[in-house]
Amino acid sequence: MKNSAYIKEIFSSIQGEGKYVGVRQIFIRFAGCNVNCKNCDTDYIAKSYFYCNNKRYKNPLSPSELEKIIDENFKLNMYHSIALTGGEPLIHKDFLKEFLPLIKSKGVKIFLETSGILLDEIFEVEQYIDIISVDLKIYESFGVECDLKEIGKLVSLLDKVYFKIVISENIDLEKMDKILNYIKEMGVKELYLHFINNKFNLRILDKILDLCYCYNIMGYFIPQIHKLVGIK
Ligand code: SF4
Q1: What's the CA gap between 73 and 8, in Å, rounded?
Q2: How would you label 192-223 residue by residue, b for 16+ Cβ within 10 Å and e otherwise?
Q3: What does the pLDDT read at residue 200?
Q4: Using one digit for the tens of pLDDT, what is the confidence trace for 44-65?
Q5: Is residue 121 part of a domain?
Q6: Of 144-153, 157-166, 179-188, which range is least confident?
Q7: Residue 46 falls inside a structural domain
Q8: Which of 8, 28, 29, 35 maximizes ligand 1 atoms within 8 Å of its Cβ, making it the mutation to test the pocket?
Q9: How many domains does the chain have?
Q10: How far apart are CA 56 and CA 231, in angstroms?
Q11: Is the pLDDT of residue 140 over 80?
Q12: Can you give the C-alpha Rg of the chain in angstroms?
């Protein structure tokens, strides 16, 4: 198929992380990821089919086929936004460039969840996206580290970008300090934090919030609420 993508699943749920925690969204989970984080808890492996509202659909599919599935299954005005998630949705950049204008013309907000590693791809699709949630990969335990200079390019999109960081007991506070200094220089005013697998540690959280306050960045700790309440 000329321009097609593999979808992992499509479902209605509540945003469980970050600035928009609690809003109702349609989640389109794309298969595949360019990163291989050691702590990844998402199954993004492509199959020849996927489910949406208990109905089985064939992979891969074209942008117009995906538009049709969304129309068949959801009333868009009952949702805050459509969340493009993964995996990494931006590995399907060419597909998104065709799909997003179709869906955007229906008046729905588009919310992108990304690791921020594929910067060029963000700029190729950002015109169709209202909110960009960047999950900063900040230390080796992710198996990848974001390039701060690259992240700095997002300065022109700060009206729609917010940053999240997954923290753990082993977090390197010196590196965290460097990152906060960098994003403060970019003009970032807030940062959303959660622990890997909700393994809360008040001592670590206090240290990170101290650093945030030193840089005049408002740090928000939010547990992954979808995991707390046992939904997707
Ligand atoms: S970027 Fe996200 S989906 Fe991809 S491997 Fe890392 S945690 Fe998993």
Answers
A1: 16
A2: bbbbbeeeeeeebbebbbebbeebebebbbee
A3: 93
A4: 999 999 999 999 999 999 999 9
A5: yes
A6: 144-153
A7: yes
A8: 35
A9: 1
A10: 20
A11: no
A12: 18
Nearest-atom index, ligand 1, CA of 115: 1
Conformational region of residue 62, where left means phi above 0, alpha means psi within -120 to 50, and beta covers everything else: beta
Nearest CA to ligand 1 atom 8: 40
Structural domain of residue 17, as residue ranges?
A: 7-229
> How far, in Å, from the CA of 31 to the mean position of ligand 1?
11
What are the structure tokens assigned to 44, written together? Answer: 């993004």
Per-residue pLDDT reduced to its tens digit, 65-89: 999 999 999 999 999 999 999 999 9
- For residue 146, being part of any structural domain is answered with yes
Ligand 1 nearest-atom number relative to CA 87: 3
Task: Find the distance separating the first CA and the last CA of the chain, reported in whole Å.
Answer: 30
Q: Residues with beta carbon inside 6 Å of ligand 1?
A: 33, 35-37, 40, 42, 44, 86-88, 115
Residue 167, domain CATH: 3.20.20.70
Q: Give CA–CA dist 113/229, Å, rounded.
A: 21
In a domain, 2, yes or no: no
Q: How far is CA 70 from CA 9, 27, 29, in A?
A: 12, 10, 13
